[in-house]
């Protein structure tokens, strides 16, 4: 199993390009199932999760071709199977978003339940209720969701009990081919939902309100092919900004949409960082700045993202003062805390809140052998290694490879001492 070996202490500086957003690319790949015509997607990140989604489409008989310009062309004309098997779904929760497109286009779907994972139980009840509200018959049997809709789906007024990103995306995709109008209330407003809606609109879907909490979809007979460029990854961008905050120097990230990072930028400024931005770049400059611990509360967009919580927990661990981090989205997303404690961090967990006393002015974090438990916990441990004294060995980095394209190359380009150790 690959590991990352990081020698702490280097000051980061320079510029890097941010990759396409994993969480936008995954549902967009699934949306190809809504049309018979070929679709072309560009700016897909080179990540294990993307490979898994492509394998899932391939396992159904869908044709996926990589073009010379690195865009991917997908055609469902050859589809044979309407099943998303356990082997693939269990490795990636986002596979659940093939349910809506399969059901809407082919009238049936069999999708393995994704199960729980390291950050919480993550049920899919709201996805299922959404499909039922659109008129589907859904049964859960032997770990599989079996859904069908003889005569097609019908538009409905749906209120989500909780804000759910993949749930909103799944039901929005299903509703594009339903008869009549669907209104989704308490919908997720994440930029990835908007990117998916824009892709669907380019395929001929009639969608308004994406990016607000009420999305209206007027069903159409069929969707056609499109070319869509995936938005930049705001979580990857935020992770490199935190790296700059704790180990910079001056770090510039390019090819980003700065407004997607408003909540993160605000917290970095509150932490004492100097930030500037242009249309598609953000620069963090830590020269002459003292990093101060900040209070964070995660919540759905546009509030502070849960996917940046672990990175900011680490920021607090190496800043001046005491910061409180409240996790309101997932019930078990503090797995990185134990590992940070092994490196010397001072943290106390009480329910869904962790209080961290920064180590500035004391000895700071010390390198250690640590275990990555989920994607963002892994990122947090890599960042910890950058500022710890001595060497940090991060084990189980397959989590990291799900979400960070070329992380060691990008970190090394900024001046970090980091290498992948195989086996
Ligand atoms: C591939 C992808 O886009 N993943 C993101 C997506 O995950 P994902 O879409 O799975 O997360 P949700 O927004 O659905 O989860 C929010 C909360 O709702 C709960 N819930 C969700 C669905 C459901 O049917 N029932 C239910 O109770 C979840 O357990 C969680 O407590 O949004 C999360 C929240 O921003 C991010 O951390 C993930 O990176
Ligand atoms: C939790 C995440 O991803 P997923 O929903 O794919 O597990 C994430 O991107 O931080």
Automatic annotation (TrEMBL):
Subcellular location: Cytoplasm
EC number(s) reported in the record: 2.5.1.7
Binding positions for phosphoenolpyruvate per the UniProt entry: 22-23
Gene3D superfamilies according to UniProt: Enolpyruvate transferase domain
SUPFAM superfamilies membership: EPT/RTPC-like
Pfam families: EPSP_synthase
GO biological process: cell division; cell wall organization; peptidoglycan biosynthetic process; regulation of cell shape; UDP-N-acetylgalactosamine biosynthetic process
InterPro entries listed in its UniProt record: Enolpyruvate_Tfrase_dom, Enolpyruvate_Tfrase_sf, MurA_subfamily, RNA3'P_cycl/enolpyr_Trfase_a/b, UDP_GlcNAc_COvinyl_MurA
Signal peptide residues on this chain, from the entry's feature table: none
Active site, per annotation: 117
Domain of life: Bacteria
Biochemical pathway: Cell wall biogenesis; peptidoglycan biosynthesis
Residue sites binding UDP-N-acetyl-alpha-D-glucosamine per the record: 93, 122-126, 307, 329
A GO cellular-component term linked to this record: cytoplasm
GO MF term list: UDP-N-acetylglucosamine 1-carboxyvinyltransferase activity
Annotated catalysed reactions: phosphoenolpyruvate + UDP-N-acetyl-alpha-D-glucosamine = UDP-N-acetyl-3-O-(1-carboxyvinyl)-alpha-D-glucosamine + phosphate
Keywords per UniProt: Cell cycle, Cell division, Cell shape, Cell wall biogenesis/degradation, Cytoplasm, Peptidoglycan synthesis, Pyruvate, Transferase
Modified residues (2-(S-cysteinyl)pyruvic acid O-phosphothioketal): 117
Every Enolpyruvate transferase domain range: 7-411
Function of the molecule: Cell wall formation. Adds enolpyruvyl to UDP-N-acetylglucosamine.
Protein family per UniProt: Belongs to the EPSP synthase family. MurA subfamily.
HAMAP family, alphabetized: MurA
Protein name: UDP-N-acetylglucosamine 1-carboxyvinyltransferase
Lineage: Bacteria, Pseudomonadati, Pseudomonadota, Gammaproteobacteria, Oceanospirillales
């Amino acid at each position: 199993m690959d590991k990352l070996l990081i020698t702490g202490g280097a000051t980061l500086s320079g510029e890097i390009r941010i990759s396409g957003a994993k969480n936008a690319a995954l549902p967009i790949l699934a949306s190809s199932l809504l049309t018979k015509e070929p679709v072309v997607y560009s700016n897909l990140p080179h990540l294990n999760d993307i490979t898994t989604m492509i394998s899932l489409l391939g396992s159904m008989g869908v044709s996926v071709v990589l073009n010379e310009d690195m865009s991917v062309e997908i055609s469902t004309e050859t589809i044979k199977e309407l099943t998303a098997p356990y082997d693939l779904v269990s490795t990636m929760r986002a596979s659940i978003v093939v349910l809506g497109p399969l059901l809407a286009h082919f009238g049936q779907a069999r999708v393995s339940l994704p199960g729980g994972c390291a950050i919480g139980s993550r049920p899919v009840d709201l996805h299922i209720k959404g499909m039922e509200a659109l008129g589907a018959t859904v049964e859960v049997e032997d770990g599989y969701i079996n859904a069908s809709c003889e005569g097609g789906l019908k538009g409905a007024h749906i209120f989500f009990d909780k804000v759910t990103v993949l749930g909103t995306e799944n039901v929005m995709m299903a509703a594009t081919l339903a008869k009549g109008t669907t209104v989704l209330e308490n919908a997720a407003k994440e930029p990835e939902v908007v990117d998916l809606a824009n892709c669907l609109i380019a395929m001929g879907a009639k969608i308004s309100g994406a990016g607000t909490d009420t999305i209206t979809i007027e069903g159409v007979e069929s969707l056609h092919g499109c070319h869509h460029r995936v938005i930049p990854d705001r979580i990857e961008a935020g992770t490199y900004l935190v790296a700059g905050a704790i180990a910079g120097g001056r770090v510039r990230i390019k090819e980003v949409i700065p407004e997607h990072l408003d909540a993160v930028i605000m917290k970095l400024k509150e932490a004492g960082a100097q930030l500037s931005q242009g249309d598609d770049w953000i620069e963090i400059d830590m020269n002459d700045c003292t990093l101060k611990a900040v209070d964070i509360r995660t919540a759905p967009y546009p509030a502070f993202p849960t996917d940046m919580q672990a990175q900011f927990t680490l920021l607090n661990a190496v800043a001046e003062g005491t910061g409180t981090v409240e996790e309101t989205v997932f019930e078990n997303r503090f797995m990185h805390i134990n590992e940070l404690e092994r490196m010397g961090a001072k943290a106390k967990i009480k329910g869904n809140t962790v209080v961290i006393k920064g180590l500035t002015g004391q000895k700071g974090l010390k390198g250690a052998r640590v275990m990555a438990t989920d994607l963002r916990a892994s990122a947090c441990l890599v960042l910890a290694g950058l500022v710890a004294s001595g060497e940090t060995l991060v084990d189980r980095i397959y989590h990291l490879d799900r979400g960070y394209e070329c992380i060691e190359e990008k970190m090394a380009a900024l001046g970090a001492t980091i290498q992948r150790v195989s086996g």
